[in-house]
Design brief:
The chain has two domains: 3-106 and 239-249, 3-Layer(aba) Sandwich (Rossmann fold), CATH 3.40.50; 108-236, Rossmann fold (3-Layer(aba) Sandwich). The protein has helices at 11-29, 44-52, 56-73, 90-99, 107-117, 129-133, 136-143, 154-167, 175-189, 217-223, 236-249; strands spanning 3-7, 37-41, 78-81, 122-126, 147-149, 202-205, 232-235. α10 (217-223) links the parallel β6 and β7 (232-235). A four-stranded parallel sheet has the order 5-4-6-7. Strands 2-1-3 form a three-stranded parallel sheet, with helices on both faces. It has eleven helices and seven strands. The N and C termini lie close together (9 Å). α5 (107-117) crosses α7.
């Protein structure tokens, strides 16, 4: 069994994928076991430029070619994209790969599985501006039976997008950004949504770097009790990794 990962977008989360997959497999199989894995790490800067220019057709073509290379030339049995945002153009690659009998492990399905296992039905999705303002990931979650709620101000979305690209993707975790992140969630949890009342069961960290902002979260709760609320957190990175390991070990 060989796993193919398309990473680099960003390198920070890709490192986490590599480390966690191998750690989990070693824990399960014992000894010096590690994953038979092909990791293709692309130039994140080039993809950021294409995203800023709105050149998603080009990204879609590059993404499909990269994944096909992993699946066919590198002989990977299944593949994954180590980022939420690029799943915006994953459908074409998913269809092409299926023709070769090579599954794409879609991060949206993995998130939904984690939510359902925890009993979460009503979720809020946070991530990059693309992920929060477009339907590609929300719709995948809905197809898996989840209700996606949450009203976020444009300024909050912009703040999160800046924090992700200018800080987290560069390996920086600032305390003021951690506070901003939790403030955004706290405010949105109190909104009276049109489709059935305020609040949500869980917050989906729909960007593979967002989990970095939950480091030492308990310290924030101790200092600021208002953050200690009923909702849980579902980390898209960890959900994806869990499914990749499960698939690999079958």
């Amino acid at each position: 069994m060989r796993l193919g990962i398309l990473g680099g977008t960003s390198p920070e989360s890709t490192i986490h994928y590599y480390e966690q997959i191998n750690r989990r497999i070693r824990q399960s199989a014992g000894g010096n076991t590690s994953a038979d894995m092909m990791l293709r790490s692309v130039d994140f800067g080039a993809y950021c430029q294409m995203m800023d220019a709105g050149d998603w057709d080009k990204i879609e073509g590059l993404l499909a070619n990269e994944l096909l290379h992993l699946a066919i030339k590198d002989e990977c049995d299944f593949v994954a994209i180590a980022t939420n945002t690029l799943h915006k153009v994953a459908n074409k690659a998913e269809r092409i790969l299926a023709q070769y009998g090579k599954p794409l492990i879609h991060i949206g399905d993995c998130i939904a599985d984690e939510c359902k296992a925890a009993g979460y039905k009503r979720v809020a999705l946070l991530g990059t501006k693309v992920t929060m303002t477009e339907d590609f990931l929300k719709e995948r979650l809905r197809q898996n039976g989840l209700e996606v709620v949450g009203e976020f101000y444009e300024s909050e979305i912009d703040d999160l997008n800046r924090i992700i690209f200018e800080e987290l993707c560069c390996g920086e975790v600032k305390i003021e950004s951690q506070i901003k992140f939790l403030d955004i969630i706290h405010r949105a949890d109190g909104v009276d949504f049109e489709n059935g009342g305020g609040g949500f069961d869980a917050v989906i960290l729909g960007c593979t770097e967002l989990g970095m902002l939950l480091q030492d979260r308990q310290n924030f709760i101790t200092a600021r009790p208002k953050y200690d609320h009923h909702y849980g957190f579902v980390d898209s990175t960890q959900a994806h990794i869990n499914k990749l390991v499960e698939t690999y070990l079958k």
